[in-house]
Design a protein that fits this description.
By secondary structure, the protein is an alpha/beta fold. The protein has a single domain, classed as Uracil-DNA Glycosylase, subunit E, CATH 3.40.470.10. 45% of the residues lie in helices and 11% in strands. It has 9 helices and 6 strands; from the N terminus they run H-E-H-H-H-E-E-E-H-E-H-H-E-H-H. A 4-stranded parallel sheet has the order 2-1-5-6, with helices on both faces. A two-stranded antiparallel sheet has the order 3-4. A hairpin with a 2-residue loop joins strand 3 and strand 4. The protein is globular and about 45 Å long. It binds iron/sulfur cluster (SF4). Iron/sulfur cluster (SF4) binds next to helix 5.
Length: 209
Amino acid sequence: MDWNLNEAIRPDARYREWKMEKLLAEIAACNACSAHLPHGPRPVVTAGGNCRILIIGQAPGRRVHESGIPWMDQSGKELRRWLGVTEERFYDPEAFGLIPMGFCYPGKGKSGDLPPRPECAPLWHKRLLGGLPRVKLTLLIGKYAQEYYLGTAAAPSVTETVRNFRKSLPEYLPLVHPSPRNKIWHLKNPWFEARVLPELRKRVQDILS
Ligand code: SF4
């Protein structure tokens, strides 16, 4: 980039970083739905004001709740393989914003983790996304993110929404959850690895290069 242009852009970039840090500090102190959180509030969300790809997932699991680092588990490992990026690149705040639908661990239900708290996205997402003007692509992981952001454009099932991923491009790319528990789903749906992942990796590489 031309030196003068770079200098002209930098103050805006610094201002965005500063504003986002302030907002993240506000979120860190949130206890809006603490009465429903069996392990207490611990929001796990990261984003740099200049990030270019947003990953909107579900809610932290137990391991992520304990570490406080988003996607630092087996699902995150698989997600990084899907994206074709190293751990270092994944946690670069200039590259990825990691924002779940519910920022705090909701605890366990009868069949796995409970859904993300419904208060969270309406309370915080609009402000967060408003502070991320450089985002070129938003990955919607799982049904909560897809229903919230695609609305009536989401198919009745996650499988169909993901199969029709091209309809949501270029703004959104819907994905299934990269949980190791979805192994059987992948065996039944080989088109995901063959068609969705190459497109995902190409877009990620183009945006971050
Ligand atoms: S889940 Fe969201 S709304 Fe509830 S306490 Fe955590 S940050 Fe606040």
